[in-house]
Amino acid sequence: MRFTLFRAFWARFLAVFAGVLLLGGCASTLSARVTTYAQWPADVQGQYYRLQSQPGQQNNLEYQAYADMVRASAGRTGLIEATGSQVARFEISFTYQNPVSQTWVQQYADPYFGPPMYPWGGYYGGNFGFGGGVFYSPPVVNVPVTVYKNTLTLVIKDKTRDGAEVYRSTAVSMSSEDNLNQVMPYLVRAIFDGFPANNGSTRDISYEISR
Fold first, then answer.
1. Under CATH, what is the fold of the domain 2-104+143-209?
2. Where does the pLDDT of residue 102 fall: very low under 50, low under 70, confident under 90, or very high at 90 and above?
3. Mean pLDDT computed over 50-73
4. Residue 190 and residue 33: Cα distance in Å, rounded?
5. Which of 93, 32, 101 is nearest to 63 (CA)?
6. What mean pLDDT value characterizes the chain?
7. For residue 90, what are the contacts with CB-CB under 8 A and spacing of at least 6?
């Protein structure tokens, strides 16, 4: 019985390991959770908007780069960016952050760094004096993992309604690296995909990232 369990364990292990090797050359996936609140007015196609910079961000190059991404996607709203003296009905603003935290995940302990001469698992006996031995089954341990919460919030206000919000959407994507600049194009895309979406809706969206 134990020999059967031993073989089953390593069969599963090798199958997972082979899957990891195959995925090494494939595209990876970025997932984002988008929460949206909207009271989008009708018949606004072709009306103007202005992108309102946050205080202190006018000369921030990172902010300006993200603003260009928003401009490139804002056309999905049907609005046009105002220039010069053109009067804009809508005001678009956005904020972003990527706070870091630590969480714990479970994984198999590495047998190469375990205590010497003490294999995990147990002993399985053979029949008629043959086939006995030790089977290895690494224990599950908790390990700390650093997590970055990449977050983008975009708000659209309607000046004809005394500046009331008509659209608010937040996209969040977790990552193990400090790579907000790489994730931001997908957060912007996630916010405008399916615009304006249902009021109070939460959607999980995935994008394929070619390596």
1. Double Stranded RNA Binding Domain (3.30.160)
2. confident
3. 94
4. 8
5. 93
6. 82
7. 44, 47, 48, 49, 50, 79, 156, 157, 158, 159, 166
